[in-house]
Sequence to fold (218 residues):
Amino acid sequence: MPTKPAPDRLYGRTKGKKLRPRQELLLATLLPRVAWPEVPFGGAVRETWLEIGFGGGEHAHALALANPDAGIIAAEVFENGICSLLSRLTAEELPPANLRLFTNDARPLLRGMVDGSLSRLFLMFPDPWPKARHAKRRFVHPEMLREAARVLRPGGEWRIASDDPTYQAWTDAVLAAQDDFIVERSLSRPAGWPPTRYEAKAILAGRQPVYWRLERLG
Ligand SMILES: C[S@@+](CC[C@H](N)C(=O)[O-])C[C@H]1O[C@@H](n2cnc3c(N)ncnc32)[C@H](O)[C@@H]1O
Fold:
């Protein structure tokens, strides 16, 4: 296992299909109204949650609607994904007061957070980087685990899911070597976890997701 993760460089795509005028408009007009950290949460939120790599945003949006007391920071770097979540938000009269979008690399964001300031962390189907020579790029990594343990409050929860066998074995190995979290592992999505688009595709393609629930020890 590599001792150091890769430096904070983005290896995946940040741009996909050329944006349509409506998507450009959402980025120019709606994003500045929900951008983290420029725009603080609208209402009184009792805790802060962070989703890393929200993809199309359905998971973060479902969390925000079901948990009005939680301030959710949803991080994603892929422009088309950011537009998908923005587009989802236009279905409502006002964007949710408890959902904010961070559109840069989530790793420096996490590192900049105050000790114990986060109650929940979500990493749903991270890019798997299955080749051994790319292992350093995986988000689940001993160094990121230490960082997550620092930022999560005692009793705080980290949810991870992956459908990639290499990433699953890797995650099991990284989790077996730490003592900051109690770990529950499941082959079916635990109750209360919203589904994600990537998960639906994986299941359709016959891949078996693994779900880990980590509880920060006090
Ligand atoms: C395989 S997709 C899964 C998306 C979504 N969570 C789902 O389950 O449908 C992984 C996502 O993580 C995003 N991502 C990768 N590295 C990131 C980083 N450092 N900060 C924020 N997002 C990142 C990618 O752009 C991509 O959209």
Summary: The chain has a mean pLDDT of 94. The helical segments are 21-34, 58-66, 79-89, 106-111, 142-151, 165-176, 197-204. The pocket of S-adenosylmethionine is lined by residues 12, 52-55, 75-78, 81, 105-107, 124-127, 196-199 (CB under 6 Å). The two ends are 27 Å apart (CA to CA).
